[in-house]
Design a protein that fits this description.
By secondary structure, the protein is an all-alpha fold. The chain contains 11 helices and no strands.
């Protein structure tokens, strides 16, 4: 099932179309020269943003429609006649997509490093590029998208169409990316003017929804800021726990679902 998932992804038109967008990396050096004083910083910003956007699209669409396509084509029914539990089937789907995202992140990360290195040769930056920070930013972007795949799998186990997995995953990503800022605001002095109900609701959403901002290390990579190693360790633990919870809920729902 794991290898079948990978082969299916490589044949998928969505994957081929999204990965074609990586050709934009070729024009980043030219675009970066529009900045007269921070050419390398701009190229790094554009590379990391493009890499993050491509991984996001892959996570949303591959995670959101994988189970739906299998059930729509009646592929799930034939697979589950084999000695393969629904939980194992779901986990192998998830692991296949996650492995592909790691491969895509490695490829896009290599393109980003080559582009930034090429630009830095012609336009030496004011501060040296800390490549460890760049690798950390790319790696945590990949982890963020793998977590998003787990959430998409949860929505897919609930829904009978692809609308909820796709749009539910996108909405979760948008809200989860802003949850930290909302939490900080409602607990600041300015947020005390809000009603207690609003502040309690914001706090509840902060703990329920995934905090995607914790995975964003672009500022550290662009401005060569030191990494908070204990904080990164907590983020890794958060990733493992939240991903496991999302997959556990997805498996519980999927095993009790009537496939028709």
């Amino acid at each position: 099932m794991f290898s079948i998932t990978l082969r299916g992804i490589f044949r998928d038109r969505i994957f081929q179309g999204i990965l074609t967008a990586s050709l934009i990396f070729l024009v980043i050096p030219s675009i970066s020269t529009l900045s007269m004083r921070q050419v390398t910083e701009l190229s790094l910003t554009l590379c990391l943003s493009l890499e993050s956007f491509i991984l996001l699209l892959l996570a949303v669409f591959l995670g959101g429609i994988s189970l739906w396509k299998d059930m729509e084509r009646r592929y799930t029914h034939s697979v589950l006649t084999l000695p393969l539990s629904r939980t194992r089937y779901l986990l192998k789907r998830f692991s296949g997509i996650s492995c592909f995202l790691l491969l895509a992140a490695a490829l896009l990360g290599l393109l980003s490093i080559l582009v930034v290195f090429f630009v830095s040769l012609g336009y030496p930056p004011d501060r040296p590029v800390v490549w460890v920070n760049v690798l950390a930013a790319i790696g945590f972007d990949a982890l963020k998208c793998i977590l998003l795949v787990a959430i998409a799998m949860f929505f897919s186990s609930v829904s009978t169409s692809f609308f909820l997995p796709i749009f539910g995953t996108i909405a979760t990503f948008l809200v989860g990316g802003a949850s930290q800022q909302a939490y900080d605001y409602v607990h600041s002095s300015a947020g005390q003017t809000l009603s207690p109900l609003v502040r309690q609701a914001a706090s509840a959403l902060y703990y329920i929804l995934p905090n995607f901002s914790a995975f964003d290390l672009k500022v550290n990579a662009i401005y060569a800021l030191p990494l908070d190693l204990p904080g990164l360790g907590l983020t890794l633990g958060y990733f493992v726990v939240y991903t496991a919870m999302a997959l556990t809920l997805a498996a519980l729902i999927f095993t009790r679902r009537e496939l028709g």
